[in-house]
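Example 9 (inverse folding). The structure is encoded as follows.
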């Protein structure tokens, strides 16, 4: 008789119901945040060429899209603004009637329960395309903090639930927290782009946000993709300064970083499934080379498995539809 000393692991894979019973990681619609681009002065909607299925919205069409994504059960959005005017002080970033501020109010009017996050940065709003103020060809840190905090304050005053500084200037979380608290906006949360790499995966976003640098690159303030311990130091500083949640960006090539951040800090952790990660999938799917749904859902599962509590992703509407087809989880 054969010696049966090996383990029969396949018993727990024997049927779809059995596999679902023992599944360790699930993706739910509540895990999704949808990035949206609102363009000042735009009438209607225009698709972003480098990001099939993602668009710039004028404010009226943005309102209609809020209704559509709310019907899908997506719990929140993060807003990026495309201003009509740019200047060296990025004044459109913190204008009371700026494009993001107007969009925040519109989103809350359409769905008061929607979690509205705002990207807090200066790069779309100044002609240099850098995330801080530029003086004599250098991106200056401390002088940028006041304007970054002022931008966050204007978003919060308009009704944002969460402000998300992406500029990577040192001290920006503290500056924002102190400013919000001083204006009695203590309930507004800060989601810090704490571990944001200087990545080639942002390429299509430059077209989407009209934010390509006019000179140089962002390597003096965004992180070297080779470093992990540096990211943990960045995250620790942001928690100390008052961040309520931490983000790792990009997602797909940084699963190890998500896992390290998750095990090192007890605050919620997000990851951003960024533009090139999205566009590569869309391009391959258009050629018939991949099964788009299977690939995307495997990616979402990997982000959750690595430790992300929620995911910022351009795939959110598709994922929400697929989840609805499977009764809510995958």
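The amino acid assigned to each position is listed next.
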């Amino acid at each position: 008789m054969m010696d049966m000393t090996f383990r029969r692991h396949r018993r727990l894979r024997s049927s779809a119901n059995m596999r679902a019973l023992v599944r360790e990681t699930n993706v739910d619609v509540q895990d999704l945040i949808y990035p949206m681009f609102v363009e000042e002065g735009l009438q209607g909607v225009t698709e972003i060429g480098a990001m099939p299925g993602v668009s710039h919205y004028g404010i009226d069409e943005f309102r209609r899209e809020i209704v559509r994504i709310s019907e899908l059960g997506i719990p929140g959005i993060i807003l990026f603004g495309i201003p009509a005017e740019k200047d060296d002080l990025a004044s459109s970033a913190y204008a009371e009637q700026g494009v993001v501020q107007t969009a925040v109010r519109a989103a809350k009017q359409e769905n008061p329960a929607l979690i509205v996050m705002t990207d807090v940065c200066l790069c779309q709003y100044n002609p240099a395309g850098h995330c801080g103020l530029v003086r004599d060809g250098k991106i200056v840190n401390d002088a940028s903090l006041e304007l970054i905090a002022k931008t966050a304050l204007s978003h919060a005053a308009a009704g944002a639930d969460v402000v998300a500084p992406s500029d990577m200037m040192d001290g920006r979380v503290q500056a924002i927290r102190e400013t919000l608290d001083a204006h009695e906006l203590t309930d507004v949360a800060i989601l810090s782009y704490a571990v944001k790499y200087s990545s080639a995966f942002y390429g299509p976003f430059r077209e989407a946000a009209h934010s390509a640098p006019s000179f140089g690159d962002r390597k003096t303030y965004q992180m070297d993709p080779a470093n992990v311990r540096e990211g943990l130091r960045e995250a620790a500083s942001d928690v100390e300064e008052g961040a309520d949640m931490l983000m790792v960006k990009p997602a797909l090539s940084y699963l190890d970083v998500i896992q390290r951040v998750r095990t090192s800090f007890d605050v919620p952790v997000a990851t951003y499934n960024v533009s090139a990660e999205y566009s590569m999938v869309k391009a391959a799917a258009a050629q018939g080379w991949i099964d788009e749904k299977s690939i995307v859902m495997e990616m979402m599962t990997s982000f959750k498995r690595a430790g992300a509590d929620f995911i910022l992703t351009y795939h959110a509407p598709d994922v929400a539809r697929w989840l609805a087809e499977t009764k809510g989880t995958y």
